[in-house]
Amino acid sequence: MNHSLSKLRILAVDDNRTNLHILQVFLKKLGHQVILAENGEEAVQRYQAEKPDMVLLDIMMPVMDGFEAARQIRALATERWVP
């Protein structure tokens, strides 16, 4: 496996703390660094501050839904593609 893909910085976003914790444990067990956010607005802020390699978004969240967060993150990620 390509070493650059073996450890990713992943932004995980979900308003359900149980789901977020399960995802965090799973991703860390795979060797990835996990950045957490509990709503779309927080996700956009964390994306700007942390510049993760990948973003995993829940769709239905308070404050800002996953669709709007994805649009804003894509607008911020002009120099590189972020899945």
Care to describe what's here?
With 83 residues, the protein is of the alpha/beta class. The protein has helices at residues 3-6, 17-29, 40-50, 66-76; strands at 9-13, 33-37, 54-57. The chain has a three-stranded parallel sheet, sandwiched between helices. Helix 3 packs parallel to helix 4 (66-76). The longest helix has 13 residues, at 17-29.
Task: Give the helix/strand layout.
Layout: H1 3-6, E1 9-13, H2 17-29, E2 33-37, H3 40-50, E3 54-57, H4 66-76
Parallel strand pairs: 1-2, 1-3
Helix pairs in contact: 3-4
Question: Residue-averaged pLDDT, rounded?
Answer: 92
Strand portion? 15-25%
Low-confidence stretches: none
Instruction: Indicate the structural class.
Output: alpha/beta
The succession of helices and strands, N to C, reads HEHEHEH
Biggest sheet architecture? 3 strands, parallel
Major sheet: order of its strands? 2-1-3
Radius of gyration, in Å, reads 12 Å
Query: How would you sum up the global shape?
Result: flat
Tell me the distance between the termini.
Answer: 19 Å
Number of helices: 4
Helical content (DSSP H or I, runs of 4+): 40-55%
How many strands?
3
Write a brief structural summary.
This protein is an alpha/beta fold. Helices cover 47% and strands 17% of the residues. It is built from four helices and three strands, in the order αβαβαβα.
Observed structural traits:
47% helix; alpha/beta; 3-stranded parallel sheet
